[in-house]
Amino acid sequence: MATLGNSANIFWHECPVGQAERQKLLNQKGCVVWITGLSGSGKSTLACTLGRELHSRGHLSYVLDGDNLRHGLNKNLGFAPEDRTENIRRVGEVAKLFADAGLICIASLISPYQKDRDSCRALLPDANFIEVFMNMPLSLCEGRDPKGLYKLARAGKIKGFTGIDDPYEAPLNCEIELRQINGVCPAPSEMAGKVVSYLDSKGFLQA
Amino acid sequence: MATLGNSANIFWHECPVGQAERQKLLNQKGCVVWITGLSGSGKSTLACTLGRELHSRGHLSYVLDGDNLRHGLNKNLGFAPEDRTENIRRVGEVAKLFADAGLICIASLISPYQKDRDSCRALLPDANFIEVFMNMPLSLCEGRDPKGLYKLARAGKIKGFTGIDDPYEAPLNCEIELRQINGVCPAPSEMAGKVVSYLDSKGFLQA
Which residue range or ranges hold the APS kinase domain (chains A, B) (predicted)? Predict the structure, then answer.
Protein backbone atom coordinates (compact mmCIF):
# COMPACT_ATOMS: atom_id res chain seq x y z
CA MET A 1 0.00 0.00 0.00
CA ALA A 2 1.48 3.30 -1.07
CA THR A 3 0.07 5.60 1.58
CA LEU A 4 -1.87 5.58 4.82
CA GLY A 5 -5.14 5.89 2.91
CA ASN A 6 -7.03 3.32 4.88
CA SER A 7 -9.97 4.31 7.02
CA ALA A 8 -9.19 1.42 9.35
CA ASN A 9 -6.22 3.51 10.44
CA ILE A 10 -8.26 6.60 11.28
CA PHE A 11 -9.44 6.63 14.84
CA TRP A 12 -12.21 8.57 16.50
CA HIS A 13 -11.40 10.70 19.53
CA GLU A 14 -14.25 11.40 21.92
CA CYS A 15 -13.79 14.60 23.88
CA PRO A 16 -14.86 15.04 27.49
CA VAL A 17 -16.75 18.27 26.76
CA GLY A 18 -19.70 17.32 24.62
CA GLN A 19 -22.52 19.04 22.81
CA ALA A 20 -24.82 18.90 25.82
CA GLU A 21 -22.37 20.83 27.96
CA ARG A 22 -21.79 23.46 25.32
CA GLN A 23 -25.54 23.84 24.86
CA LYS A 24 -25.95 24.37 28.59
CA LEU A 25 -23.26 27.06 28.52
CA LEU A 26 -25.07 28.80 25.66
CA ASN A 27 -28.59 28.08 26.88
CA GLN A 28 -29.71 26.91 23.46
CA LYS A 29 -29.60 23.82 21.29
CA GLY A 30 -27.37 23.51 18.27
CA CYS A 31 -29.12 23.13 14.94
CA VAL A 32 -28.92 24.01 11.27
CA VAL A 33 -31.32 26.44 9.64
CA TRP A 34 -30.86 25.72 5.94
CA ILE A 35 -32.20 28.51 3.72
CA THR A 36 -32.75 27.49 0.11
CA GLY A 37 -34.15 29.40 -2.84
CA LEU A 38 -33.41 31.15 -6.10
CA SER A 39 -30.77 33.82 -6.47
CA GLY A 40 -32.43 37.06 -5.42
CA SER A 41 -35.09 35.35 -3.33
CA GLY A 42 -33.79 36.99 -0.15
CA LYS A 43 -31.77 34.19 1.46
CA SER A 44 -28.85 36.35 2.61
CA THR A 45 -31.15 39.06 3.86
CA LEU A 46 -33.15 36.55 5.88
CA ALA A 47 -29.95 34.93 7.21
CA CYS A 48 -28.63 38.26 8.46
CA THR A 49 -31.94 39.41 9.88
CA LEU A 50 -32.37 36.10 11.66
CA GLY A 51 -28.83 36.31 13.06
CA ARG A 52 -29.55 39.81 14.32
CA GLU A 53 -32.83 38.77 15.94
CA LEU A 54 -31.25 35.75 17.64
CA HIS A 55 -28.34 37.87 18.88
CA SER A 56 -30.74 40.41 20.36
CA ARG A 57 -32.23 37.54 22.38
CA GLY A 58 -28.78 36.50 23.60
CA HIS A 59 -28.36 33.52 21.27
CA LEU A 60 -25.22 32.60 19.38
CA SER A 61 -25.67 31.94 15.70
CA TYR A 62 -23.36 31.93 12.73
CA VAL A 63 -24.13 32.41 9.07
CA LEU A 64 -22.55 30.15 6.47
CA ASP A 65 -23.10 31.98 3.23
CA GLY A 66 -22.61 29.97 0.05
CA ASP A 67 -21.03 32.85 -1.81
CA ASN A 68 -18.70 33.80 1.04
CA LEU A 69 -17.47 30.23 1.46
CA ARG A 70 -16.51 30.14 -2.19
CA HIS A 71 -13.82 32.67 -1.27
CA GLY A 72 -12.38 30.32 1.37
CA LEU A 73 -13.18 26.69 2.13
CA ASN A 74 -14.70 26.14 -1.31
CA LYS A 75 -12.47 28.35 -3.40
CA ASN A 76 -11.11 25.31 -5.25
CA LEU A 77 -14.58 24.41 -6.55
CA GLY A 78 -16.30 25.63 -9.69
CA PHE A 79 -19.87 25.26 -10.90
CA ALA A 80 -19.78 21.95 -12.72
CA PRO A 81 -22.43 19.56 -11.33
CA GLU A 82 -19.93 17.55 -9.25
CA ASP A 83 -18.43 20.76 -7.87
CA ARG A 84 -21.84 22.09 -6.90
CA THR A 85 -22.56 18.86 -5.07
CA GLU A 86 -19.19 18.95 -3.29
CA ASN A 87 -19.76 22.61 -2.44
CA ILE A 88 -23.03 21.79 -0.70
CA ARG A 89 -21.59 18.67 0.94
CA ARG A 90 -18.80 20.68 2.55
CA VAL A 91 -21.18 23.37 3.77
CA GLY A 92 -23.39 20.63 5.22
CA GLU A 93 -20.44 19.05 7.02
CA VAL A 94 -19.31 22.40 8.42
CA ALA A 95 -22.87 23.28 9.46
CA LYS A 96 -22.98 19.98 11.32
CA LEU A 97 -19.80 20.92 13.20
CA PHE A 98 -21.29 24.29 14.17
CA ALA A 99 -24.47 22.63 15.40
CA ASP A 100 -22.33 20.19 17.38
CA ALA A 101 -20.50 23.18 18.85
CA GLY A 102 -23.90 24.35 20.11
CA LEU A 103 -24.53 27.17 17.66
CA ILE A 104 -27.62 27.90 15.63
CA CYS A 105 -25.98 27.62 12.24
CA ILE A 106 -27.71 29.51 9.44
CA ALA A 107 -26.71 28.17 6.04
CA SER A 108 -27.71 30.26 3.07
CA LEU A 109 -27.26 28.61 -0.33
CA ILE A 110 -29.31 28.29 -3.50
CA SER A 111 -28.85 24.49 -3.08
CA PRO A 112 -31.19 23.74 -5.98
CA TYR A 113 -31.22 19.94 -5.81
CA GLN A 114 -33.33 17.95 -3.38
CA LYS A 115 -30.74 15.18 -3.29
CA ASP A 116 -27.97 17.50 -2.08
CA ARG A 117 -30.17 19.09 0.58
CA ASP A 118 -31.30 15.67 1.74
CA SER A 119 -27.66 14.56 2.07
CA CYS A 120 -27.02 17.49 4.40
CA ARG A 121 -30.17 16.75 6.36
CA ALA A 122 -29.02 13.15 6.79
CA LEU A 123 -25.86 14.34 8.57
CA LEU A 124 -27.91 15.46 11.57
CA PRO A 125 -30.73 14.16 13.70
CA ASP A 126 -33.70 14.99 11.48
CA ALA A 127 -35.29 17.48 13.88
CA ASN A 128 -32.08 19.52 13.99
CA PHE A 129 -32.15 20.31 10.28
CA ILE A 130 -34.64 23.08 9.62
CA GLU A 131 -35.13 23.66 5.93
CA VAL A 132 -36.46 27.10 5.06
CA PHE A 133 -37.76 27.51 1.52
CA MET A 134 -37.74 31.03 0.13
CA ASN A 135 -40.60 30.36 -2.26
CA MET A 136 -40.45 33.56 -4.28
CA PRO A 137 -41.52 33.70 -7.95
CA LEU A 138 -38.76 33.76 -10.52
CA SER A 139 -40.19 37.01 -11.88
CA LEU A 140 -39.68 38.69 -8.49
CA CYS A 141 -36.12 37.39 -8.13
CA GLU A 142 -35.27 38.31 -11.69
CA GLY A 143 -36.79 41.75 -11.22
CA ARG A 144 -34.58 42.31 -8.19
CA ASP A 145 -31.48 40.79 -9.84
CA PRO A 146 -29.26 42.28 -7.09
CA LYS A 147 -26.08 40.88 -8.61
CA GLY A 148 -27.03 41.37 -12.26
CA LEU A 149 -26.71 37.63 -12.82
CA TYR A 150 -30.13 37.01 -14.35
CA LYS A 151 -29.34 39.61 -16.97
CA LEU A 152 -26.10 37.80 -17.81
CA ALA A 153 -27.88 34.44 -17.84
CA ARG A 154 -30.63 35.70 -20.15
CA ALA A 155 -27.95 37.09 -22.44
CA GLY A 156 -26.32 33.66 -22.51
CA LYS A 157 -23.19 35.02 -20.87
CA ILE A 158 -23.46 32.61 -17.98
CA LYS A 159 -24.81 29.12 -18.46
CA GLY A 160 -26.31 26.63 -16.04
CA PHE A 161 -27.94 29.39 -14.02
CA THR A 162 -30.55 28.16 -11.56
CA GLY A 163 -34.06 29.13 -12.66
CA ILE A 164 -32.99 30.04 -16.19
CA ASP A 165 -31.26 27.06 -17.75
CA ASP A 166 -30.75 24.87 -14.70
CA PRO A 167 -33.60 23.56 -12.55
CA TYR A 168 -34.52 24.58 -9.01
CA GLU A 169 -36.14 21.64 -7.27
CA ALA A 170 -38.59 22.99 -4.73
CA PRO A 171 -38.28 21.28 -1.33
CA LEU A 172 -40.62 18.38 -0.71
CA ASN A 173 -40.21 18.30 3.05
CA CYS A 174 -39.23 21.76 4.28
CA GLU A 175 -40.04 22.83 7.81
CA ILE A 176 -40.79 26.45 6.88
CA GLU A 177 -41.98 27.95 3.62
CA LEU A 178 -41.84 31.69 3.12
CA ARG A 179 -43.82 33.22 0.28
CA GLN A 180 -45.60 36.32 -0.88
CA ILE A 181 -48.93 37.17 0.70
CA ASN A 182 -51.41 38.78 -1.71
CA GLY A 183 -48.52 39.44 -4.06
CA VAL A 184 -46.45 41.19 -1.40
CA CYS A 185 -43.22 39.82 0.02
CA PRO A 186 -43.20 39.86 3.84
CA ALA A 187 -40.63 42.14 5.48
CA PRO A 188 -37.35 40.39 6.44
CA SER A 189 -38.12 40.94 10.13
CA GLU A 190 -41.47 39.22 9.69
CA MET A 191 -39.86 36.24 7.97
CA ALA A 192 -37.10 36.05 10.59
CA GLY A 193 -39.79 36.18 13.25
CA LYS A 194 -41.43 33.13 11.75
CA VAL A 195 -38.16 31.19 11.97
CA VAL A 196 -37.52 32.35 15.53
CA SER A 197 -41.02 31.24 16.54
CA TYR A 198 -40.35 27.84 15.02
CA LEU A 199 -37.01 27.50 16.85
CA ASP A 200 -38.65 28.58 20.08
CA SER A 201 -41.58 26.19 19.73
CA LYS A 202 -39.19 23.29 19.11
CA GLY A 203 -37.10 24.08 22.17
CA PHE A 204 -33.93 25.24 20.43
CA LEU A 205 -33.82 28.53 22.33
CA GLN A 206 -33.14 26.87 25.65
CA ALA A 207 -30.69 24.21 26.77
CA MET B 1 -18.25 30.18 -20.87
CA ALA B 2 -19.67 26.83 -19.88
CA THR B 3 -20.56 27.49 -16.26
CA LEU B 4 -20.78 30.24 -13.70
CA GLY B 5 -17.20 29.55 -12.63
CA ASN B 6 -16.10 33.13 -12.46
CA SER B 7 -15.15 34.70 -9.18
CA ALA B 8 -16.33 38.06 -10.52
CA ASN B 9 -19.82 36.61 -10.14
CA ILE B 10 -19.42 35.64 -6.50
CA PHE B 11 -20.40 38.42 -4.16
CA TRP B 12 -19.54 38.98 -0.53
CA HIS B 13 -22.36 39.44 1.97
CA GLU B 14 -21.54 41.36 5.12
CA CYS B 15 -23.78 40.46 8.03
CA PRO B 16 -24.98 42.94 10.61
CA VAL B 17 -23.90 40.75 13.55
CA GLY B 18 -20.14 40.65 13.45
CA GLN B 19 -17.32 38.94 15.30
CA ALA B 20 -17.06 41.73 17.88
CA GLU B 21 -20.69 41.29 18.92
CA ARG B 22 -20.39 37.52 19.18
CA GLN B 23 -17.23 37.91 21.25
CA LYS B 24 -19.05 40.26 23.59
CA LEU B 25 -21.85 37.73 24.00
CA LEU B 26 -19.30 35.02 24.82
CA ASN B 27 -16.94 37.25 26.82
CA GLN B 28 -13.91 35.94 24.98
CA LYS B 29 -12.04 36.50 21.73
CA GLY B 30 -12.12 34.04 18.87
CA CYS B 31 -8.82 32.42 17.97
CA VAL B 32 -7.24 29.22 16.74
CA VAL B 33 -5.05 27.05 18.96
CA TRP B 34 -3.23 24.85 16.46
CA ILE B 35 -1.67 21.77 18.08
CA THR B 36 0.98 20.08 15.95
CA GLY B 37 3.20 17.11 16.62
CA LEU B 38 3.92 13.47 15.89
CA SER B 39 1.31 10.75 16.17
CA GLY B 40 1.25 9.73 19.81
CA SER B 41 2.70 13.01 21.04
CA GLY B 42 -0.48 13.80 22.98
CA LYS B 43 -2.26 16.27 20.72
CA SER B 44 -5.77 14.87 21.18
CA THR B 45 -5.30 14.52 24.92
CA LEU B 46 -4.13 18.12 25.19
CA ALA B 47 -6.99 19.31 22.98
CA CYS B 48 -9.58 17.61 25.17
CA THR B 49 -7.99 18.68 28.44
CA LEU B 50 -7.76 22.25 27.20
CA GLY B 51 -11.41 22.18 26.11
CA ARG B 52 -12.40 20.89 29.52
CA GLU B 53 -10.38 23.55 31.33
CA LEU B 54 -11.79 26.36 29.18
CA HIS B 55 -15.33 25.05 29.69
CA SER B 56 -14.85 24.99 33.45
CA ARG B 57 -14.02 28.69 33.21
CA GLY B 58 -17.17 29.35 31.21
CA HIS B 59 -15.50 29.65 27.82
CA LEU B 60 -16.77 28.14 24.58
CA SER B 61 -14.24 26.15 22.61
CA TYR B 62 -14.49 23.50 19.95
CA VAL B 63 -12.03 20.82 18.96
CA LEU B 64 -11.32 20.13 15.30
CA ASP B 65 -9.59 16.78 15.34
CA GLY B 66 -7.76 15.79 12.18
CA ASP B 67 -8.75 12.15 12.45
CA ASN B 68 -12.40 12.90 13.22
CA LEU B 69 -12.72 15.28 10.26
CA ARG B 70 -11.50 12.55 7.95
CA HIS B 71 -14.80 10.81 8.70
CA GLY B 72 -16.79 13.85 7.54
CA LEU B 73 -15.63 17.03 5.80
CA ASN B 74 -12.41 15.40 4.61
CA LYS B 75 -13.64 11.89 3.93
CA ASN B 76 -12.96 12.29 0.22
CA LEU B 77 -9.24 12.87 0.86
CA GLY B 78 -6.47 10.32 1.14
CA PHE B 79 -2.87 10.62 2.25
CA ALA B 80 -1.12 11.56 -0.97
CA PRO B 81 0.87 14.80 -0.56
CA GLU B 82 -1.73 16.97 -2.32
CA ASP B 83 -4.51 15.39 -0.25
CA ARG B 84 -2.63 16.04 2.99
CA THR B 85 -2.22 19.67 1.99
CA GLU B 86 -5.91 19.98 1.09
CA ASN B 87 -6.85 18.26 4.35
CA ILE B 88 -4.95 20.86 6.34
CA ARG B 89 -6.19 23.72 4.18
CA ARG B 90 -9.82 22.78 4.84
CA VAL B 91 -9.24 22.45 8.57
CA GLY B 92 -7.55 25.85 8.52
CA GLU B 93 -10.50 27.41 6.71
CA VAL B 94 -13.01 25.85 9.10
CA ALA B 95 -10.92 26.90 12.11
CA LYS B 96 -11.01 30.43 10.75
CA LEU B 97 -14.82 30.29 10.60
CA PHE B 98 -15.00 29.10 14.20
CA ALA B 99 -12.68 31.88 15.34
CA ASP B 100 -14.85 34.34 13.42
CA ALA B 101 -17.86 32.89 15.22
CA GLY B 102 -16.11 33.86 18.47
CA LEU B 103 -15.00 30.42 19.62
CA ILE B 104 -11.62 29.30 20.82
CA CYS B 105 -11.04 26.72 18.13
CA ILE B 106 -8.63 23.94 19.05
CA ALA B 107 -7.24 22.22 15.96
CA SER B 108 -5.37 18.99 16.55
CA LEU B 109 -3.48 17.62 13.55
CA ILE B 110 -0.05 16.15 12.93
CA SER B 111 0.31 18.88 10.24
CA PRO B 112 3.96 17.96 9.60
CA TYR B 113 4.85 20.63 7.05
CA GLN B 114 5.75 24.19 7.97
CA LYS B 115 4.33 25.45 4.67
CA ASP B 116 0.87 24.04 5.37
CA ARG B 117 0.79 25.38 8.93
CA ASP B 118 1.93 28.77 7.71
CA SER B 119 -0.87 28.81 5.14
CA CYS B 120 -3.40 28.29 7.93
CA ARG B 121 -1.73 30.97 10.03
CA ALA B 122 -1.97 33.38 7.12
CA LEU B 123 -5.77 33.03 7.09
CA LEU B 124 -6.04 34.89 10.39
CA PRO B 125 -4.57 37.97 12.01
CA ASP B 126 -1.20 36.62 13.14
CA ALA B 127 -1.86 37.05 16.87
CA ASN B 128 -5.02 34.93 16.62
CA PHE B 129 -3.17 31.82 15.45
CA ILE B 130 -1.51 30.15 18.40
CA GLU B 131 0.72 27.30 17.32
CA VAL B 132 1.39 24.73 20.03
CA PHE B 133 4.23 22.33 19.32
CA MET B 134 4.07 18.99 21.11
CA ASN B 135 7.82 18.51 21.05
CA MET B 136 7.98 14.91 22.23
CA PRO B 137 10.77 12.54 21.17
CA LEU B 138 9.93 10.00 18.49
CA SER B 139 10.98 7.24 20.89
CA LEU B 140 8.33 8.35 23.39
CA CYS B 141 5.60 8.58 20.74
CA GLU B 142 6.57 5.25 19.24
CA GLY B 143 6.69 3.66 22.67
CA ARG B 144 3.12 4.82 23.31
CA ASP B 145 1.92 3.91 19.79
CA PRO B 146 -1.73 4.26 20.94
CA LYS B 147 -3.08 3.33 17.53
CA GLY B 148 -0.51 0.69 16.65
CA LEU B 149 0.50 2.73 13.61
CA TYR B 150 4.23 2.96 14.30
CA LYS B 151 4.35 -0.82 14.43
CA LEU B 152 2.66 -1.01 11.04
CA ALA B 153 4.95 1.68 9.63
CA ARG B 154 8.09 -0.09 10.89
CA ALA B 155 6.81 -3.30 9.34
CA GLY B 156 6.42 -1.47 6.03
CA LYS B 157 2.67 -2.03 6.08
CA ILE B 158 1.95 1.67 5.91
CA LYS B 159 4.18 4.02 4.01
CA GLY B 160 4.72 7.76 4.20
CA PHE B 161 4.23 7.74 7.97
CA THR B 162 5.33 10.94 9.69
CA GLY B 163 8.48 10.42 11.72
CA ILE B 164 9.28 7.08 10.12
CA ASP B 165 9.50 7.55 6.37
CA ASP B 166 8.01 11.01 6.00
CA PRO B 167 9.47 14.11 7.65
CA TYR B 168 8.05 16.13 10.53
CA GLU B 169 9.15 19.73 10.18
CA ALA B 170 9.42 21.21 13.66
CA PRO B 171 7.76 24.64 13.91
CA LEU B 172 10.04 27.63 13.44
CA ASN B 173 7.71 30.18 14.95
CA CYS B 174 5.39 28.48 17.42
CA GLU B 175 3.86 30.42 20.27
CA ILE B 176 4.03 27.55 22.77
CA GLU B 177 6.37 24.57 22.91
CA LEU B 178 5.57 21.67 25.19
CA ARG B 179 8.32 19.17 25.98
CA GLN B 180 9.57 16.74 28.55
CA ILE B 181 11.20 18.10 31.67
CA ASN B 182 14.06 15.99 32.99
CA GLY B 183 12.84 13.17 30.80
CA VAL B 184 9.30 13.33 32.16
CA CYS B 185 6.30 14.41 30.13
CA PRO B 186 4.19 17.03 31.96
CA ALA B 187 0.65 16.00 32.93
CA PRO B 188 -2.04 17.00 30.42
CA SER B 189 -3.55 19.41 32.95
CA GLU B 190 -0.18 21.11 33.34
CA MET B 191 0.20 21.50 29.59
CA ALA B 192 -3.36 22.74 29.20
CA GLY B 193 -2.68 25.20 32.02
CA LYS B 194 0.23 26.62 30.05
CA VAL B 195 -2.02 27.25 27.05
CA VAL B 196 -4.76 28.77 29.21
CA SER B 197 -2.21 31.11 30.79
CA TYR B 198 -1.07 32.16 27.34
CA LEU B 199 -4.64 32.81 26.19
CA ASP B 200 -5.34 34.75 29.35
CA SER B 201 -2.18 36.85 29.08
CA LYS B 202 -3.03 37.76 25.48
CA GLY B 203 -6.56 38.82 26.37
CA PHE B 204 -8.47 36.03 24.65
CA LEU B 205 -10.41 35.13 27.78
CA GLN B 206 -12.33 38.38 27.83
CA ALA B 207 -14.22 40.31 25.19
Answer: 29-178
